[in-house]
């Protein structure tokens, strides 16, 4: 039995998408980010920081989306979604798996700045501008890396499941002009049948606006 602990539009989408790419059977248990249930002993037994996702698999639970994605890809070597240990492209793969989380942390900050933090007066324009700049730096790096590549490693890999999750958020905080390679990459992600199945099963984006301007306060 594989059970994914999930919140729509959250990092559990990475795992859900990879489960679909691998053609595995799974159950979804959906939680809320706002009702306090992630702080419950039941959930913290699976994910000690009270964060989504957690995956029940092989008689235990695993937390941290990157760890889960790496574990699943390695558990199914025949799918070819992770370069084997010792192969040259393994370092590239690990870099992009972890880069995705660096970028997701900035996106998470921007979600707080623009959407979640209450009261609104508690939001900081300076921090919002700083995080928007920091996001732009990661997007420029990604844009340059995708030049001449369809996927992060050239061929599709589990690193794309890690980074592909971020795509829904990126252009809500930084305008898409100047990022044609990222826009084309996003179209390739959305055209994958497994991605479409994951979105259908897991619920769509949490964003109510296409773009969030940085207000001058
Ligand atoms: N590095 C962790 C981050 C997990 C994380 O922050 N998840 C968010 C949802 S995308 C969450 O559970 N937030 C609840 C909270 O911060 O209380 C991972 O990749 O799994």
Automatic annotation (TrEMBL):
InterPro entries: Glutathione-S-Trfase_C-like (IPR010987), Glutathione-S-Trfase_C_sf (IPR036282), Glutathione_S-Trfase (IPR040079), Glutathione_S-Trfase_N (IPR004045), GST_C (IPR004046), Thioredoxin-like_sf (IPR036249). Residues 86-211 form the GST C-terminal domain. Pfam families: GST_C (PF00043), GST_N (PF02798). Residues 1-80 form the GST N-terminal domain. It comes from the Bacteria. Belongs to the GST superfamily. This is Glutathione S-transferase. It comes from Thioclava pacifica DSM 10166.
